Amino acid sequence: QVQLQESGPGLLKPSQTLSLICTISGGSIEMEDSSWVWIRQPPGKGLELIATITDRGSAYYSDSFKVRAAIARVTSKNQVTLQLSSVTPEDTAVYFCAGRKGYYICLDNVCSVSKSDFTWWGQGTQVTVAS
């Protein structure tokens, strides 16, 4: 049973860099043909894909995040990370990591997703940006 657990700072000030870690257990991030993603849900809004990293380590970004976001993996720890620079209050959201078999790549300006698009989900971590 694949399980995902996000960890993050909770509260940041504007202009800081958000760093999140997703630790995966019960399955490898190098599982053939798998995708691992970061998604967020701002208050009162839908799920929005930020970035994808594949089993081969290739990274893809929603166009609106490509300048500020960096997704990476630590294979020795079976972790997927996300850094989001220059945060503003508009980055306040619950951040989820998720995964699936099969690649899920979106390069659009806004990449809306649904729960059913991914097989495995973390519980989410609240991130609040406030001065």
Question: What key phrases describe this protein's structure?
Answer:
131 residues; mainly beta; eight-stranded mixed beta sheet; four-stranded antiparallel beta sheet; 49% strand; globular
Provide structural commentary.
The protein is globular. Strand 5 and strand 6 form a beta hairpin. About 30% of the residues are buried. The strands form two sheets. Strands 2, 4, 5, 6, 9, 10, 11 and 12 form an eight-stranded mixed sheet that branches. A four-stranded antiparallel sheet has the order 1-3-8-7, with no helix packed on it. It contains no helices and twelve strands. The chain is mostly beta strands and about 130 residues long. The mean pLDDT is about 95. The N and C termini lie far apart (about 40 Å).
Portion of residues within helices: under 10%
Order of helices and strands: EEEEEEEEEEEE
Tell me the structural class.
mainly beta
The overall pLDDT average reads 97
Low-confidence stretches: none
End-to-end CA span: 40 Å
What percent strand? over 45%
Q: Could you give the topology of this structure?
A:
Blueprint: E1 3-7, E2 11-12, E3 18-25, E4 34-41, E5 47-54, E6 59-61, E7 69-74, E8 79-84, E9 93-101, E10 112-113, E11 120-121, E12 125-129
Parallel strand pairs: 2-12
Antiparallel strand pairs: 1-3, 3-8, 4-5, 4-9, 5-6, 5-10, 7-8, 9-11, 9-12
In short, what is this structure?
The chain is mainly beta and 131 residues long. The protein has no helices and twelve strands.
